[in-house]
Write a structure and sequence with these properties.
This protein has helices spanning 2-14, 27-42, 85-97, 110-121, 480-501; strands at 173-176, 189-191, 196-201, 204-209, 215-220, 228-233, 239-244, 248-253, 258-264, 270-276, 279-284, 288-293, 300-305, 311-316, 322-327, 332-336, 350-354, 361-366, 373-378, 384-389, 394-400, 405-411, 416-421, 428-432, 437-442, 449-454, 461-465, 469-473. By secondary structure, it is α+β, with helices and mostly antiparallel strands. Pfam families: WD40_CDC20-Fz.
């Protein structure tokens, strides 16, 4: 009997987990029954359908949310269904499987794969993919250009092509210059407008035709102790002036290889020369500068006395208004043009005299596109390139090159400045003007570079050095497109001039 009593106690305890049939209705059951009753009463024939709910009842829908959020039409926004954990595991497996290489031999028919998936999993495995692309991707429209192509393609588009100028680090040609005198103060090198290079090798002058490569011995000094000190071509390139150590200035006709005259006026060697039309200016070791009118018998027409030591640099400006001179006394002087009919000796024609350099000034160059700009370079104790404004008399800029400066040349094709250096670099440097950004260094000479000269077409600079070589650097070749455009412009201008003459 005790056993039956224990079983009755167990059943009474279990009845506590069973629903209570005679208990009052739960709150959620009352809400559901009241909402159903109101909905039925609102739709009954005897009452209006516009009966509003009591304010105490919670509305079944949120106000303003009467529209369905999930589009019902196919082709609308992307629909992400609810998946169970098994489908999420399958989707994760499929994502990891896409990174594995595909086996081309084990190709499976999509229909049979779908049937296997339904029979094994109860659903199509393709439906388990989280990101599913429906349909094929559309091709780009005709004429469409991808602006991001440069990010992943090495094929350059026309907009990305940038032409860069190439400057060779090796000379275009090397010429021998045996017995070249290693003297910093001399000017033994010049290039004519007819493409002829003149170089002085000890007591002889040689000509090299850059077009054909022919070499000609022009002259040799009568006395072996004498030597050539300076050379300078006329503007048309037919005549060559030669300054010598016996205090003379000779004038030679190159075509006939004949000396036209020998002019004597200096008392020391003539180490610098410069032409201004029919006026030849010569600088001497005595510190004097002489003007010679080569048209008349009495050639010496003027003397400039401003330097106390050797005048090793001498250059007329492109417009012929000023003469610049540099000396071993570290001075840079600018002189005004000689007036016709004036004579004698005077130092009153000096316009400017600058003493900022701390070394001998041999390197002088006038800017072709700015006639009032003069560049000067100092020797070993100075090493500075200075830019002067002749109109204002001020120093515009100064740049330390860390090396002796023996020569300067402006390159108009790219508006650059070229400098020749001795100790300690022994090279040629191309500078962007006026920023003095270094464009290129031309190395190759084994000893100090003594002088520079520019070709008639301004595309090549020639350097002569104490290592007895002449090196031609083709560093300023003009852009062919710009060159043709300039030639067409010159032809059209000439055509207009000819028509106006007719």
């Amino acid at each position: 009997m005790a056993q039956f009593g224990f079983e009755n106690d167990i059943h009474s305890i279990l009845k506590l987990d069973m629903p209570i049939t005679n208990a009052p209705m739960a709150r959620w059951q009352r809400k559901a029954s009241s909402s159903d009753a109101s909905a039925l009463s609102g739709l009954s024939p005897g009452k209006s359908a516009n009966v509003s709910l009591s304010s105490s009842k919670t509305p079944s829908k949120t106000p303003g949310k009467n529209k369905k959020q999930t589009p019902s039409k196919i082709g609308g926004d992307r629909f992400i269904p609810t998946r169970n954990n098994k489908q999420m595991d399958v989707a994760s497996f499929l994502l990891s499987k896409e990174n594995e290489p595909m086996d081309t031999n084990a190709a499976v028919n999509p229909e049979s794969q779908k049937a296997w998936s339904v029979s094994l999993n109860g659903y199509n495995i393709e439906d388990a993919k989280i990101l599913h692309l429906g349909g094929k991707p559309l091709n780009a429209p005709e004429g469409y250009q991808n602006n991001l192509k440069v990010l992943y393609s090495q094929v350059t588009t026309p907009a990305s092509i940038k032409k860069t100028r190439y400057i060779s680090s090796t000379p275009d040609r090397i010429l021998d210059a045996p017995e070249l005198r290693n003297d910093f103060y001399l000017n033994l090198f010049d290039w004519s407008s007819q493409n002829m290079i003149a170089v002085a090798l000890y007591n002889s002058v040689y000509l090299w035709d850059a077009s054909r490569g022919d070499i000609t011995l022009l002259m040799t000094m009568a006395c072996n102790e004498d030597y050539i000190c300076s050379l300078s071509w006329t503007a048309e390139g037919s005549y060559l002036a030669v300054g010598t150590s016996d205090c003379k200035v000779q004038l030679w006709d190159v075509e006939r290889q004949k000396r036209l005259r020998s002019m004597t006026s200096h008392t020391a060697r003539v180490c610098s020369l410069s032409w201004n039309d029919h006026i030849l200016s010569s600088g001497s070791r005595s510190g004097h500068i002489h003007h010679h009118d080569v048209r008349v018998a009495d050639h010496h027409i003027f003397t400039l006395t401003g330097h106390s030591q050797e005048v090793c640099g001498l250059k007329w400006s492109p417009d012929g208004r000023y003469l610049a001179s540099g000396g071993n006394d570290n001075l840079v002087c600018v002189w005004s043009r000689v007036q016709e009919g004036s004579g004698g000796s005077s130092s009153n024609q000096v316009v400017h005299c600058w003493s900022e350099h701390q070394g001998a000034v041999k390197a002088l160059a006038w800017c072709p596109w700015q006639p009032n700009i003069l560049a000067s370079g100092g020797g070993t104790s100075d090493r500075h390139i200075r830019i002067w404004n002749v109109n204002s008399g001020s120093c515009i800029s100064s740049h330390d090159t860390q090396s002796q400066i023996s020569s300067l040349v402006f390159a108009p094709n790219y508006k650059e400045l070229v400098s020749a250096h001795g100790y300690a670099h022994n090279n040629v440097v191309i500078w962007k003007y006026p920023s003095f950004t270094k464009v290129a260094e031309l190395n190759g000479h084994e000893d100090r570079v003594l002088s520079l000269t520019l070709s008639p077409d301004k595309s090549t600079v020639a350097s002569v050095a104490a290592d007895e070589t002449i090196r031609l650097w083709k560093s300023f070749e003009e852009d062919p497109v710009k060159k043709k455009a300039q030639e067409r412009m010159v032809k059209s201008t000439n055509g207009v001039i000819h028509q106006s003459i007719r």
